[in-house]
Amino acid sequence: MRIVNRGTFLSMPAGTVFSKYEPCVFGNLEIKGDSTVNSQGELIDFWSQDLAGALKADSSDAYLDACDAAEAGQRVAIDLDCQSRDGLYEQGQLFAVWEPEDVQVLIQRLQRAVIEAQP
User: Which helix (H) or strand (E) holds 61?
Assistant: First the structure.
């Protein structure tokens, strides 16, 4: 894992696994989508898939309904193919970027978690 600034992050490819970072504080784990450019060709923003709260919903109302259902103990579907635009334009924002080797370790740990959770 390494910490990079916004400019470096925006130049990274879609599929980069990351979290927003403030000194010693890591945000939700996300997967970077494409970066967007302005009319001058400058990288200004990006799309991402947040892995926390990735509930399947076609609208804001449906998302709130899914949250209510989950809070009531119901199983709700997730959607890991739905991106949103960051849109915050925080120039000083730092990003904790996971290297491919780090992602492989995460996958292995998640696979172990599935086995451990079996009754």
Answer: helix 60-71
Amino acid residing at 46: F
What is the residue extent of each domain of the chain? 2-51+85-116
Integer angstrom CA distances of residue 58 from 11, 32, 61, 63, 82: 30, 21, 8, 7, 10
Single pTM value for the model: 0.88
pLDDT at 50 over 90: yes
The residue type found at 119 is P
The CB density around residue 55, as the number of other CB atoms within 10 Å, is 17
- Residue tagged 């967007």 (tokens): 36
| DSSP summary character for residue 81 | S
Question: What average pLDDT does this structure show over 101-106?
Answer: 97
Say which DSSP state 82 is in.
Answer: -
Q: pLDDT band for 90, please (50, 70, 90 cuts).
A: confident
What residues form DSSP beta bridges with 47? 85
| Percent of all residues in the chain with a pLDDT value above 70, rounded to a whole number | 100
